[in-house]
């Protein structure tokens, strides 16, 4: 079994499972793609794993990480922040040298 390239916090896991139950999803996929004003952006979605993805089980859901994104995600942490404003998933990524002003993309 390969090591998990990203840590999912308990809060993030619980929110992923809550949303997956609403959507009837079994997979949560994470990737990094070119885009955003800082050069790279995170892509998260309830989508089936691709053939080359790294997969593991987190509670009731399968996590899939795009293998091409591993070098930009290795050692990152996915967390969830609740609240009335600014709620959402947050990445803490040791490879991010900076982020854009809106916080949706990063420089690596």
UniProtKB/TrEMBL annotation:
GO terms for biological process: iron-sulfur cluster assembly. Residues 6-103 form the Core domain. GO terms for molecular function: 2 iron, 2 sulfur cluster binding; 4 iron, 4 sulfur cluster binding; iron ion binding. Gene3D superfamilies: HesB-like domain. InterPro entries: ATAP, ATAP_core_dom, HesB-like_dom_sf. Coiled coil: none annotated. NCBIfam families: iron-sulfur cluster assembly accessory protein. This is Iron-sulfur cluster insertion protein ErpA. It comes from Methylacidimicrobium cyclopophantes. The gene is erpA.
């Amino acid at each position: 079994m390969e090591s998990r390239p990203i840590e999912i916090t308990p809060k993030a896991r619980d929110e992923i499972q809550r949303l997956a139950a609403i959507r009837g999803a079994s997979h949560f996929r994470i990737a990094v793609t070119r885009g955003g004003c800082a050069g790279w952006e995170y892509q998260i979605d309830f989508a089936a794993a691709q053939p080359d993805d790294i997969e593991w089980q987190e509670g009731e859901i399968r996590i899939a990480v795009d293998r091409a994104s591993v070098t930009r995600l290795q050692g990152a942490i996915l967390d969830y922040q609740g609240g009335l404003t600014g709620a959402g998933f947050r990445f803490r990524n040791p490879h991010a040298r900076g982020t854009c002003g809106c916080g949706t993309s990063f420089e690596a």
